[in-house]
Amino acid sequence: MSEIAAPPIPALPSGLVAVVKRECPTCVTVAPVLRELAARAKLTVYTQDDLAFPEGLAPEDDTGLAVSYHHRIETVPTLIRVENGVEAERAVGWHRGDWEKLTGVSGLGAGLPEWRPGCGSKSVDPDIAPELAVRFEAHKLASRRVALAELEDEAEAMFARGWTDGLPVVAPTERRVLAMLGGTTRALDEVVAIVPPDLAPATVEKIAINAVMAGCLPEHLPVVLAAVEAVCTDAFNIHGVLATTMPVGPVLIVNGPIRRRIGMNSGKNVFGQGNRANAAIGRALQLVVRNVGGGRPGEVDRATHGNPGKLGFCFAEDEEGSPWTPLAGDFGAAPGTDAVVAFTGEGPRCIVDQLSRDPDSLARTYAVNLRTLHHPKLVLAFDCLLAIGPEHSRIFREAGWRKADLLARLSELLLIPGSELVRGAGGIAEGLPESVAGATLPKFRPGGLLVVHCGGGAGLFSAMIGGWASGAVGSAPVMREIRP
């Protein structure tokens, strides 16, 4: 736990309080008004930069910016009326009518312009504000501090302590963590989830630390929080996902306007490198599972081969170019909702069809590829995420096929005679028991085939992302709305 004591919050004296700085032209303009007020009412002036300004008023020292920071001064001059130690009203910048209403004094600033906007407070200066946050807010962080020796390299120290995924991570300093926490309105001690396998509580603060390490920006944090909530559910079963010898890990699909606000990629190279939001959000989730939950490779993570997506696999759906409703809508999200869907998947596999121009032909291409998922003779055991590219989706759009139409046709095409699935059929020992020989079985369980729209505008390709064991014995996709 932190041993940093909370610094005292400076109280404002009752009466009128003004916050100014000499380098602000508007503050210089209203200096005579402040002297006029001081002669007619109780006025306390705090200056941010020059103890001799305003002249003749003996201002209080706020060069350390404690008053400005704690009382949320964003613009100078700011004039506040304080009653019994509590702020009652404030005026920002210089506006004669506002100042007269706040003070009850008429005729202020005769000869001055009616209005001047003021300047930015030093407490919100981008070069200063992060250090103020550390000075005044660091005591709120509950995580233990790890001191490094003067000559110790930060990156190597984090490697040595087992905090990384094999790649360098960003050092989670107090300044960076506090800046990250600015990306959410949620309390930093709120427990977002209990993370398997260690069943450790993941607070907003702990998740923010790992988001820093992953390279996230503050605006990415709400997506990371929703992703942690999604995978730490019984339905998703992250403990089982870790423990399986199959190569799967969490795959995150993001829907809603937040995709554009934070600059996510839903187009060219959508599953690849190069987009910070996609890469960092997926990586942050994996670091939470590792560093908070204890899900480390070679320990509870028993994957035989794994896949590169276990570093982090996150992308946005191309909703604007899609002929269909977003994936999150299939799980009940209202249109326009910011949401993340967590799916248990392996790496993507390309599906090539450059000649089909009618939807049934293209659906047949998908079906023959989908049948091979994990093994052509294994059915009902695994879900799949079908990622349809824009040039393929155009064929369905022009034919008027809804998503439901495509899924219904694929269900028909993926009904397989049991005689082809039994052990020994085709000279292959793998398969199902002889008892199913007379049956016809679907490749996927109901709802086990998901459709998402993404990818670059050029290329007659789609992709399939195979899942893990489905249903109660394995993992089910989970949707969570993204909260600020």
Question: Can you give a write-up of this model?
Answer:
With 484 residues, this protein is of the alpha+beta class. The protein has 2 domains: 15-137, Glutaredoxin, CATH 3.40.30.10; 159-481, no CATH class. It has 14 helices and 20 strands. It has helices at 25-40, 66-70, 96-103, 129-137, 154-160, 174-181, 204-214, 221-231, 238-243, 258-261, 276-291, 359-371, 390-399, 403-413, and strands at residues 15-20, 43-47, 60-61, 75-76, 78-83, 86-92, 94-95, 115-116, 119-120, 191-195, 200-203, 249-255, 314-316, 339-352, 382-388, 415-417, 440-442, 449-453, 461-469, 478-481. Strands 12, 13, 14, 15, 18, 19 and 20 form a 7-stranded mixed beta sheet that branches. Strands 3-2-1-5-6 form a 5-stranded mixed beta sheet, with helices on one face. Strand 1, helix 1 (25-40) and strand 2 (43-47) form a beta-alpha-beta unit. The longest helix is centred in the N-terminal third of the chain and has 16 residues, at 25-40. It starts with 14 loop residues before the first strand and ends with a strand. The model has no long low-confidence stretch (mean pLDDT 96).
Helix-strand layout with pairing:
Blueprint: E1 15-20, H1 25-40, E2 43-47, E3 60-61, H2 66-70, E4 75-76, E5 78-83, E6 86-92, E7 94-95, H3 96-103, E8 115-116, E9 119-120, H4 129-137, H5 154-160, H6 174-181, E10 191-195, E11 200-203, H7 204-214, H8 221-231, H9 238-243, E12 249-255, H10 258-261, H11 276-291, E13 314-316, E14 339-352, H12 359-371, E15 382-388, H13 390-399, H14 403-413, E16 415-417, E17 440-442, E18 449-453, E19 461-469, E20 478-481
Parallel strand pairs: 1-2, 2-3, 12-13, 15-18
Antiparallel strand pairs: 1-5, 4-9, 5-6, 7-8, 10-11, 12-14, 14-19, 14-20, 15-19, 16-17
Helix pairs in contact: 4-6, 6-7, 7-8, 7-11, 8-11, 12-14
